[in-house]
Amino acid sequence: MNNQKYSNLINYLKNLGSVVVAFSGGVDSTFLLKAAKEALGDKAAALTVVSPYIPKWEIEEAKELVKEIGIRHEFLEVPVIIDEIKFNPEDRCYLCKTAVFTMVKDFANKNGYNYVVDGTNADDINDYRPGLRALKELEIKSPLLENKLSKNEIRELSKELNLPTWNKPPYACLLSRIPYGTELKVEDLEKIEKSERYLMDKGFRAVRVRCHGDLARIEVPIEDMLRLFDIKLMDEISSKLKEFGFKYVSLDMQGYRTGSLNLNIEEKGN
């Protein structure tokens, strides 16, 4: 591939010697895993977290992607909500990443890998991401960030590499659907997962179902809203989400946007 940034990325990874890629199956980690395979061959491996806050369909997609890339794939079981984040504090992402990436580093050390790498990209530093502090403290490498690769560049390069994730919508762990200060419950995560999967199957690719207790707040892109304003479809969606455990179902009139539950944090900081 005749792209200077991609060449720089490959050389960067080669210099690391061997790596474990924290692999979610998203656009960034898939692109990084493909590059790691090219740069390091069997000196690279994928490690995927399995937990109640990761949708099951994402785990299955991750398995298929790793199989296609042709690299070692291991799984890290995080079966219960970590005590420190039980009430979803504002620094939840920092606490969670500290706990999880400590386990990932332990895996890497025990299996003889030099470094753990993750898919943080150059655009991620512009959002509220307390988890980045944890990665820095644990000395996790972020090759895409360090080689100044933006999300759009990663998508373009992924397309050139024939990766099926090149146009995959952004996803985040299910904990990001629950307001800060709310007790995290596995049953809430399950109803969010079922609701989002149902809406995706209905053709809404970029969707969030924010959980406010008994209320589901649906976010879809503005361009998809007209399709939602169909009485029959709205009734069907409402009935289905109530089957999953919600009592009330609403549509966010501002539409889908990443980090919408971070607005209160940003306002307090201003």
TrEMBL record:
Listed EC numbers: 6.3.1.5, 6.3.5.1
Segments forming domain NAD/GMP synthase: 16-85
Ligase as UniProt keyword: yes
Whether Ligase counts among this entry's keywords is: yes
Cite the active-site annotation.
Answer: 173 (nucleophile and sulfur donor)
A single Gene Ontology MF term assigned here is: NAD+ synthase (glutamine-hydrolyzing) activity
Name its GO BP terms in alphabetical order: purine nucleotide metabolic process
Q: Which UniProt keywords apply?
A: Ligase
> Mind telling me what this protein is named?
NH(3)-dependent NAD(+) synthetase
The record lists the organism as: Clostridium colicanis DSM 13634
Gene behind the chain: nadE_1
